[in-house]
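Final paragraph of the annual report: two paired records, presented back to back.
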Amino acid sequence: MILPVYVYGHPVLRKVATEIGPDYENFSELHTNMWETMYHSDGVGLAAPQIGLPIRLFVIDGNGLAEDFPELKNFKHTFINAEIVERSPSKVMESEGCLSLPGIREEVSRPDRIRIKFLDEHFEPRDEVYEGFAARIVQHEYDHIEGKLFVDYLSPLRRRLIKGKLNAITVGKVDVDYRIKLPK
């Protein structure tokens, strides 16, 4: 089932998400719905807070970007209860967008290499190192389960310059091809 994407201004996007276990009710259905919602929305990743659930779960499929970023070939993963345990000191600036911030793309500086521990969709433990754009996408989705958005990394001046766009999102003045859930 395709679910609505919660957009900027909704309080669930600012909550630090809680861990889940293999007994999480209807996990399999939720997992399937997240993939469907992400693909329908033309996203590369989707975190549970973006569909209104403050739990530590996100999915990523970078295959669509593999032509430009070879490290994303066959990069399709589910991350449960993720924790970034290492970040490289070197950073890279790249443009980012987000399904919860439609119509906004900004340059964001992020570490170019991370190490992350998580459980996969079978609740098996994983400990992985990602570099390049794969590291960026994981950090972007990870931020969602930490209650952060990519605009939080912008300078105060840059945030002031996009304030009108952010305010427009909160009242639904956006043009998207997917269902959205506005703040109350």
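The closing record of the year follows.
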Amino acid sequence: MRYLRTALFYLMLLVSTVVMGLCAIGIVLLTRRSDWAHLCGRIWGNLNLWAAGVRVDVMGLERLKPYRPAVYAANHQSWFDIFTILGKLPVQFRWLAKEELFRIPLFGHAMRMIGYIPIDRADRKKAFESLEEASRRVREGTSIVIFPEGTRSRDGVIQPFKKGGIILAIKSGQPIVPVGLSGSHAILPKGGWLVRPGRIRMTIGDPIETAGFTMEDRDEVIFLVREAIRKYLTVREGGVLEAESTDTEVRSAAS
């Protein structure tokens, strides 16, 4: 049964990517409305969740302020985080995504047409330019979604955050909205290919205001955001913070 479910998922992934990608490109070309094209992404995400037999419990919707631009920061366990956020986060947003995704035929072109922003982590100058572009868009009213870990966690445990996404949020002066994603690693872990139907819990946290913070405060902001996400994860997924790890080592050395 799991093999049949996996086959259905990959078939849907292929067909929906082609159909929804073409729809998104066509909508932008005909209407110049990237917000309408974003709806294709929502449909794409929900179709692939359905095909994989994945249900999503969404919590914290009352905390959303969809008409206020923000940087949405989520932990990253699986491909299914992307489907979940696209399908279930009811706000207009654009992705800050690794450049490799934009090289995928049709899919990458659709992403560019909708207005998603590529970031080349191998080129420091280009990465900085992407962050500047993203912070400008947020200031002008466009919400951005980031994965501060930079890539999927191999074991499902939240990893240290990279500074780039947090810097763009501070530069934008707009709030960071923490989004906790729990359960997606069990559905399709990094390096795996067999899909396991299951349930994902997506929890939207209280916005963290960045007004008043400077670049020198970025480590403090990273701590605040990571801790805000971590409290919506299971004990195993949340792991330990660096400060807790240090405290444990100190206690062990003293005993």
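The CA atoms of residues 88 and 95 lie 15 Å apart. This concludes the annual technical report; the extension proposal builds directly on these records.
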